[in-house]
Write a structure and sequence with these properties.
By secondary structure, this protein is of the alpha+beta class. It has helices at about 10, 45-55, 75, 90-95, 100-120, 145-155, 165-170, 190-205, 310-315, 315-330, 375-390, and strands at about 15, 35-40, 60-65, 80, 130-135, 160-165, 180-185, 205-210, 215, 225, 230-240, 255-265, 280-285, 290, 300-305, 340-350, 355-360, 365-370. β9 (about 215) and β10 (about 225) form a beta hairpin. α2 (about 45-55) runs parallel beside α8 (about 190-205) and α2 packs parallel to α11.
Length: about 400
Amino acid sequence: MLDPETTRHDDLRSGSGPWHAGARPAGRRLEQDTRCDVAIVGGGITGALLAEHLTAMELDVVLIDREREGFGSTAASTAMLQWEIDLPLRELAALYGFERAAEVYRLSFEAVDGLGRLVQELALPCRFSHRQTVYLAAGETGPRELLDESQLRGRAGLPGAFVEHAALLGAFGFDRKAAIVSPGSAEADPLSLCHALIATAAQRGARLIRDEAVGFDGAGRSAAVSLASGHVVEADHVVLATGYVMPDLVRDDLHSVASSWAIVTAPQPPHTLWPGPALVWEASEDYCYCRTTTDGRIVFGGEDEDFADPDKREALGPQKTKALLARLHALIPQAHLELGHSWSGAFGQTEDGLPLIGRVPGSPRLLSAYGYGGNGITFSFLASRLIGSLIRGREESWFGHFAIDRPRPG
């Protein structure tokens, strides 16, 4: 059961980002019990990608959210659509072996590419742009470690180049000892993307239900979602896409919840921005990350903390905003520090940096997707394809890499 006190959108995020709401159909209340092929619980970006994909498969879909779709964790996303995972390839390989780690990285790369092709095919208005990433030396990760990582990525068939200090400073203006520069990532407006996907699904017949899911059953010949209104949505399959809020029946030792903060500056003069524009992040455990927007603002985030309490997170807002501005100035001294927006949000993460996607153990008709870490929308797209395959009855060997009941590493 989802705790009503932990699923309010105000608890998922604080403040407001620069993202634009798109046109989408309004959810309605059920007047009686109903049935469908697939019921999706959660109207954020994962639920939206699932709704689009499953309706493209000509399935009858019901999408359930207690409030406005996209205004929970999705609205807190900085939408840096990276294929690089929080855990470096060398660390992931140490946990699971090189072949498995390399396959995971390639799957992530293919997910960003697949999302880009979907946006183009459907002409989704979400300011989607292809970007390269600049992965900067930071903390204990210096040139030697980045060179090793770059060589390991090359062995895995992944694109990118190791760049030393002088070339990095000349090309991007970052005064760091080294970096890995890689193509294949992207950026978007997450809220517009979410709403465009939901609108597409609705045009194909998906039904949007405004209600709170309070109970789930996926162990029998069919699945069901019990709603706060007293009605029931029966389905062949139920998919849980509720952000970081995991019902008790999906508990996993790998998963934990953290908080992150972000700021957006006012529009910058062009000379203050780095060339590219590229997505930038640091090769350290406590890393910061940044990108630009189409109107020349700098989005800068980080300062993560391992708690989810919304009151504590909001109370830390002014302190975290000040810290982010200081780190932005240290990385890009020429940037103008006039603040445009500041916000924070909670997100799920896992010990091994990989999401939890697939069947819920003990409930074969209940599927879920959690624990995206810093890869957010990239793993959301991967989840939609993996879950779509499971619903069609197709299994792939790589699904086990993300299984909810996979063995704990080490």
